[in-house]
Amino acid sequence: MSAVAIKRNGVECYKLAKIGGVNKQSVGSWSGVDSAPPPKFFSMFEDGSGTTSADLSLGTTAHDAEFVGACDWYTASTAAGTYAIATGTGEAIKIDDHNDLDWPVDGEWAFSTYTATLSNTYAGCLVKRTGSGSAYRGFALYFLNGVIDCYIVDAYSSEALHVKGTGTSTNIKDGNWHHVVVSWDGTGSQDSSALTMWIDGVKHTVGNGKLAVHSGIDTLDSDSVITNSVDIYLSNSSDTQVYPSGGVDHTAIWNGTGLTATQVAVLYNSGTPIDVRRGL
Questions:
Q1: What is the Cα–Cα distance from 213 to 159, expressed in whole angstroms?
Q2: What whole-number distance in Å separates Cα of residue 213 and Cα of residue 11?
Q3: Strand 147-155 and strand 137-144: pairing?
Q4: Which residues does 36 contact at the CB level (< 8 Å), separation at least 6?
Q5: CB proximity list for 216: less than 8 A, separation 6 or greater
Q6: pTM confidence score
Q7: What are the angstrom distances between the C-alpha of 61 and each of 71, 101, 195?
Q8: What is the pLDDT, as a whole number, of residue 36?
Q9: Of 56, 194, 236, 268, which has the highest C-beta tally within 10 A?
């Protein structure tokens, strides 16, 4: 007999997993909230020394994060815990490319992170994008002067989605830690309706007016290819690494599942990060 430890809002619970090697129980929800599997990557960035941060997710493959440039273990301000990562121009957190982290345009995927910035130009949040100009391919979330600037691209701008925050979207350029979630569900359509974002628990979509399609660039379809072989960069840009940022803390990346509004509310937890290494 075996049991699997799980946490809900940081409280450890247990579920029966196997008897005699046979699966006996599968928990699909907890207190009415749909469960989500372990992320493909999760770090609380609490290592505190060295130039890597361990992947704590209970996924099958470890994807440890590496420092690029002179990143600092930061203690003056964190989203939670003792440490966060401070980044500046030419600095980032890098996660090596792996098929676990390749997001298909017609699938479901999501990520959650805490970020902070005072930049009045582009500040990278999560970037996995190759090429330049019309040859861009991949995903990139920036905050431009504190406001969302998000790209999902096969070829810019002929086969891509580019959305920006509007006057009603949350501006994060205040130096404080903000919780950012992106969830994509391309199983039905691959236009802007497939994208949902949350900042500090507030939902941002094109439908509710907090996001807007930029210059009509909403041209993805099921044949689009947005995967690539470049690494993921947190808190900067994978293609140039020249943008200033501020920091990163408590990051999780899912592939094969998106997140619902109810799950995001649990994840946000009123601004107190939770341990999601075993999923939600």
A1: 13
A2: 40
A3: antiparallel
A4: 254, 257, 259, 263, 279, 280
A5: none
A6: 0.88
A7: 25, 11, 27
A8: 84
A9: 236
d(CA 61, CA 102): 14
Number of residues in the chain: 280
Give the model's pLDDT for residue 90. 84
C-alpha–C-alpha distance, residues 133 and 205, integer Å = 26
Q: What is the pLDDT of residue 246?
A: 79
Structure tokens at 235: 């808190």
The amino acid sitting at 185 is: D
**3-class secondary-structure state, position 232:** strand
Instruction: Report the SS3 class of residue 207.
Output: coil
Dihedral of alpha carbons 112, 113, 116, 120, sign: negative
Cβ contact 160:152 at 8 Å: yes
pLDDT at site 89 = 83
User: Which pLDDT does position 22 carry in this prediction?
Assistant: 46
Query: How distant, in Å, are the alpha carbons of 203, 216, 237, 239, 243 from that of 122?
Result: 22, 21, 9, 13, 6
Residue position matching structure tokens 């907890």: 30
Owner of token pair 């999902």: 152
Tokens of 165: 């925050």
> pLDDT under 50 in the chain at which residues?
1-20, 22-32
pLDDT at residue 34 in the model: 54
